[in-house]
Design the sequence.
């Protein structure tokens, strides 16, 4: 009986120690655990010639696909507060579009332009069939090029269709 | 009846006592197991057919979204399986529950398999959606660590000549690794990741349209029952194996015991 209690106590003490150690380590390294920085972060640090990943939304009306022989594009990545001009040569992922989240790997040039060597599309947590998107667009509640969709509670509750009447 | 007072049957008496609980487990699980497998297979079949043929395309991803019906249940079960491994480890370390030892040994390979499928389907999904097979973001890395923890546990519990020492070492490893579970769950909220945050939360409406959500519900229930079924079937086999070994040992010691005594 007492031995069981002692083992339980030892286990709890070890658990508390392990949890706090891990929490300390994770908070100490939290700057290195992010996969990408935002345009605001980049504006704060300024160009330093180091390769970083930049994440944000593709700003509406800024995408210029390169004409000419090679695939590529020029667009702005924004987080609402700051935006960064990105130049990319290469094939864009299928999900790339205005208003889509993207993560681009590259180096910020001294002139503030971000030269990207890789563009990844960042999918958000929203999954919906085409009809729902069309209904939301028609009722004027969401323009996919402008940013993320409205809260799910406004279109995905049972008995509340996504139509204009909803 | 004090088993220790007599000379010959102490080992046998203790062995029987040890298996009193597993015996009950064998009877009960034998009755439950067919239901688990049949219900699991049925729900999985409904979910897979519904998800692959009758649910609508996602407006952006098209058909690719159907990987979700396998990837998401396997990801959940990879974590849930590890949680059950940890619970067995607590039972083993504190209460020395013999059935928990065996269950922990048998959960390991099943959980590792489910984690491997989760990683593989995630990779297949990432290529067309994100544009990369693999990235080292916090979510993907922490699930990879979960896979390594499973592999480590599988190796460690089998690495000792004395199985009891293997159980103890494995239980400690499993409990240390539990810290990874909240990291997996909250990695997408704590840090910027390429992986999107959770679509289904306890609070708030799911951000998956209900027409895509129903098949996911079915495959999740189906795969969960199959996970439980496979684990219980393996644990039953392990209990029977131990019984056979104990019987053979008892037989060998009773026939060889007279030589030792004389």
Sequence:
């Amino acid at each position: 009986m007492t031995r069981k209690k002692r083992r339980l106590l030892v286990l709890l003490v070890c658990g508390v120690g392990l949890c706090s150690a891990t929490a300390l380590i994770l908070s100490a390294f939290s700057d290195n655990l992010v996969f990408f920085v935002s345009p605001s972060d980049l504006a704060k640090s300024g160009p330093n010639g180091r390769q970083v990943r930049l994440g944000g939304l593709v700003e509406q009306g800024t995408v210029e696909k390169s004409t000419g022989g090679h695939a590529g594009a020029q667009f702005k990545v924004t987080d609402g507060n700051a935006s960064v001009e990105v130049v990319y040569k290469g094939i864009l992922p299928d999900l790339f579009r205005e208003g889509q989240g993207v993560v681009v790997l590259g180096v910020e040039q001294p002139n503030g332009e971000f030269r990207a060597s890789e563009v990844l599309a960042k999918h958000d947590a929203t999954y919906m069939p085409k009809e729902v998107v069309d209904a939301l667009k028609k009722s004027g509640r969401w323009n996919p090029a402008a940013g993320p969709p409205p809260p799910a509670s406004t279109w995905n509750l049972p008995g509340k269709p996504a139509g204009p009447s909803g | 009846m004090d088993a220790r007072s007599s000379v010959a049957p102490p080992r046998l008496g203790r062995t029987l006592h040890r298996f009193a609980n597993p015996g009950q487990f064998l009877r009960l699980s034998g009755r439950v197991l067919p239901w688990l497998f049949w219900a699991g297979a049925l729900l999985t079949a409904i979910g897979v057919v519904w998800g692959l043929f009758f649910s609508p395309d996602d407006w952006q991803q098209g058909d690719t979204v159907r990987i979700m019906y396998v990837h998401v249940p396997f990801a959940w079960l990879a974590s849930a399986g590890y949680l059950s491994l940890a619970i067995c480890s607590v039972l083993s370390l504190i209460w020395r529950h013999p059935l928990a030892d065996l269950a922990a040994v048998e959960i390991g390979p099943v959980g590792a398999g489910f984690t491997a499928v989760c990683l593989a389907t995630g990779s297949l999904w990432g290529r067309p959606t994100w544009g990369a097979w693999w990235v080292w973001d916090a979510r993907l890395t922490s699930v990879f660590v979960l896979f390594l923890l499973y592999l480590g546990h599988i190796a460690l519990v089998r690495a000792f000549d004395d199985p009891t020492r293997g159980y103890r070492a494995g239980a400690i490893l499993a409990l240390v690794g539990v810290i990874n579970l909240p990291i997996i769950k909250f990695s997408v909220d704590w840090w910027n990741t390429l992986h999107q945050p959770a679509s289904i939360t306890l609070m708030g409406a799911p951000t998956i349209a209900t027409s895509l959500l129903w098949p996911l519900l079915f495959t999740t229930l189906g795969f969960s029952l199959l996970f439980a079924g496979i684990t219980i079937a393996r644990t039953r086999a392990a209990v029977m194996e131990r019984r056979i070994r104990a019987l053979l040992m008892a037989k060998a010691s009773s026939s060889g015991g007279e030589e030792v005594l004389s």
